[in-house]
Amino acid sequence: MGMMEKLDDVAVSGAREYLTFRLDQEEYGIDILKVQEIRGYEPPTRVANAPDFIKGVVNLRGTIVPIVDMRLKFSCSKAEYNSFTVVIILNLRSRIVGIVVDSVSDVMELPPESLKSAPDIDSVIDNGAVLGLGSLGDRMLILLDIERLMSSPDMGLIGAAD
Amino acid sequence: MAETHQDSGGAGGDFDLTQFYQIFFEEAGENLDQMEQMLLNLNLETADDEELNGIFRCAHSVKGGAATFGFSDVAELTHQMESLLDRLRRHELQPTAIMIDVLLESADASRSLLARHQAGGEGDAPPTADLVRRISELAAGRSVAPAAAPVVPASKPAAVVATPAASVKKTRSLEISIGPIERPEQADAIRELFRDIPGLGEITSLPSERKDVRVFMVETASTDDDLLDLFAFHVSREHISIRSVDAVAEGVVATPSAPAPSDASPGFGFFDGAPGAPAEQISVSVAATSTESKAVSRAPSKPAAGAVAAQPEAATIRVAISKVDQLINLVGELVITQAMLAQNSRALDPAVYQQLLTGLADLDRNTRDLQESVMSIRMIPMSIVFSRFPRMLRDLASKLGKKVDFVTQGEATELDKGLVEKITDPLTHLVRNSCDHGVEMPADRLAAGKSETGTITLSASHQGGSIVIEVRDDGRGMSREKILKKARERGLDVSDQMSDGEVWQLIFAPGFSTAEVVTDVSGRGVGMDVVKKNIAALNGTVEIDSAEGYGMKVSVRLPLTLAIMDGMSVGVGEEVYILPLSSVVESFQVKADAVSTVGQGSQLVKVRDEYMPVIELEKVFQVPRFDFEKSSDIMVVVEADGSRVVLLVDELLGQQQVVVKNLESNYRKVPNVSGATILGDGKVALILDTGALVRRSRH
């Protein structure tokens, strides 16, 4: 699916709401409907042989949920854990995953006309996982296809039998 | 329930029945299953009203539902069944083997009709006209002569429970009420007496109106005094009252239209409301009322089978499994919260916070009780699985021209529902195999000096932390030579020195199960590899025991439940891991010089006379260590797949029951880890896969 078509999809369905969060200096947006809840960070249980951006697993009211640090995943310069560090719990189809971000900003409604397709750029993010750019005044929002990002093979979240 | 709202609020006010289809299909399926089981257990000569009423009720509810939902073909067929059953229960007709056959066939036909409706009415409807005609002729009292009416085992219903040895003494029906006592559980021990003492008789619980009173129906040849003496071990004499109910029973049997049990309840309310009625009197009155409904079922020499089959419209509700799982999760959370509160309150001064601490102690107890009862929700008796076999064997045996008795033992053994569902298919396979290949043709059996009828026994029992299900037959068993020969032909690595156990294991080899093997060897090959794989997936094992000419036994050992496990928590660095207690053999502290290395790599430790490979969990799990002075010096010997290894850990933290959680549902499979659990402080701990660790040491 090409970039334009993807944006068209978004455009057709009208304005959508996005949860925006910060990673370092960048601001990202994800479909609010994929977000289950937002929690503070608590140290997870480390899982051996996992990629470094998978911090481990936590207990979410009886469910074992893996925690992905987006800052490590996107190679941010620093990944500190303090009282502002936030975990966004995502509900992606049948899976529940937590992502660690620097902070959550707000929920925004973006009208279709403020969406731009992303130019081809050299980035650590799989290009297919960027839905487009949203502009709100002088702020630029990177809209992520979080479901695609989380299910990409290098995330190791898919049960590759060994 | 949201749909209900929308529907009823719709402009047309049209009530949409389709939303109830699923419930109807499930209930109808259950009713048909129950009816089939009762038909199979029906003893033609001594069929009593209670059994016939039960069968009638099943047909009646299927008919009622089918008519309501407009499935006219099902309604028509079940209506005919109902008419026949109605005449039977009124004693206007005597049940015959042909009737049972026709009714069973009709139940099958109803099932396929229902399945077709459930699938949206696609495909051809199975023809039922002939069945309808045959039933209605039978109901009209004419004898039907369908040329091929099999006169096979109908008159010889599969014994579902071993029938107690027929007593020459005259048995009496008694109603025994015990109480009022403070702990009515005491009375349950009496039931065990009947189980443990052969020939004592049969006991069934009756519903009791009062919490502190237990009522039992007993059939026995013993005298009242003997019984009182026996019972006195458990409850004092003055709390036991014995009444004979024979008279009542006869009275009811004599009346053709005995009240169905469902009609019997109104009496209860009356006595309940009587103010100031003395306790004694209430229990007697209750007994009298329930006698009316139950005594009918207690005609002497009734096979025990009825007790299983004729379970009343079970007081159960249908709940989605996801809701139960959620409940279990929530209670788990509650337990963790409670543990946290308990820990935090430990430092409080008991004198100052007395009330708070009492409250916390209560919370502790209540939480544990709650957890226990929630866990038990998932457990269901094995009889659910066993009940499908009598019919299957009856059909299979008559198709093969064999004579088979089916005996089940321990059907009250409880197993996790998730396991029950998964074990059904492998068991079906094993039972089929026993009938198909194990039990010989009647003539062959006679020639071998055995009785004409073969016996297949299915038993379930608890053994330690696992449940063992056995399928036994007294058929021809397996031939060691033939299996070895076949294995050599297939190029498998075998030798004559192999133990019997190893030889039998060969039939689990994939590909060993081809048609010619099946007939040449004793034919146990069909899909045994699949059976083994399915059982291994449940953390279970399969063992075979066989004696040529005498039969064979397949034992399946399963963990009690997949959800809970006894675990031993061990500390490595700052981390905690859980070992399945079932695989822990022993643990001890070791000195560094006890460990020797082989080939500059693998370590071995000598435990008594045996050298065992050492696995350092710290290395396997790359545990970060902050205190470099310390090194692991505690060894835990674990056993899996028949081999032992030693795990090196820092400390033993304790034993506890852990709730096994799946890591793969949100994450993925992690090597050497079988799952995860939640510790008392809310943290996640990984459960080690000892099987994988043992295999790891092998290469």
Automatic annotation (TrEMBL), chain A:
Its main location: cytoplasm. InterPro entries: CheW, CheW-like_dom_sf, CheW-lke_dom. Residues 15-155 form the CheW-like domain. It holds the Pfam family CheW. It comes from the Bacteria. Keywords: Chemotaxis, Cytoplasm. It is found in: Cytoplasm. One of its GO terms (cellular component) is cytosol. CDD domains: CheW (cd00732). GO terms for biological process: chemotaxis; signal transduction. This is Chemotaxis protein CheW.
UniProtKB/TrEMBL annotation, chain B:
GO terms for cellular component: cytoplasm. Keywords: ATP-binding, Chemotaxis, Kinase, Nucleotide-binding, Phosphoprotein, Transferase, Two-component regulatory system. GO terms for molecular function: ATP binding; phosphorelay sensor kinase activity. Residues 564-699 form the CheW-like domain. Residues 13-117 form the HPt domain. It holds the Pfam family CheW. One of its GO terms (biological process) is chemotaxis. InterPro entries: Bact_Chemotaxis_CheA, CheA-like_dim, CheA-like_homodim_sf, CheW-like_dom_sf, CheW-lke_dom, HATPase_C_sf, HATPase_dom, His_kinase_dom. The modification Phosphohistidine is found at residue 60. It catalyses: ATP + protein L-histidine = ADP + protein N-phospho-L-histidine. Signal peptide: none annotated. It is an enzyme of class 2 (transferase). Gene3D superfamilies: Histidine kinase CheA-like, homodimeric domain, Histidine kinase-like ATPase, C-terminal domain, HPT domain, SH3 Domains. Its EC number is 2.7.13.3. Residues 354-562 form the Histidine kinase domain. Coiled coil: none annotated. Involved in the transmission of sensory signals from the chemoreceptors to the flagellar motors. CheA is autophosphorylated; it can transfer its phosphate group to either CheB or CheY. This is Chemotaxis protein CheA.
